[in-house]
What does this fold into?
Amino acid sequence: MDKIREVSIRRCKNRPVKAIAKELGMSRDDVEKVISKLIRETDPFIEEKVKGRRKVNLFTDITPLIEGSDFTKAYAEALLKNEAVLDYIAVKSGDHHDRFMDCIRYHIHLLLEG
It folds into this structure.
């Protein structure tokens, strides 16, 4: 089982850590470690992606884009070109408990894998 993928798929479905741990038979600490690893891995990319981007107060609902993820590199590329997603990242990138940011981070992880 690819833990990063399995945890991220569930974060994209807006699942809390406690539920993911139960579904995957993992401890909450292990789920948190997976999420923390993604955060550390993707923060430099995110900082570069939104550098100089103004922070917006209101943004478009990206729920359909996130919940409709197909977890391919092509989808990840399209997601990260979407202006609404970039606005969301600019606002939420510092929130390390945001489920949709965890999902976006997984898409970034796919791109960084090469």
Q: What stands out?
A: Residues 3-112 form one domain. The radius of gyration is 13 Å.
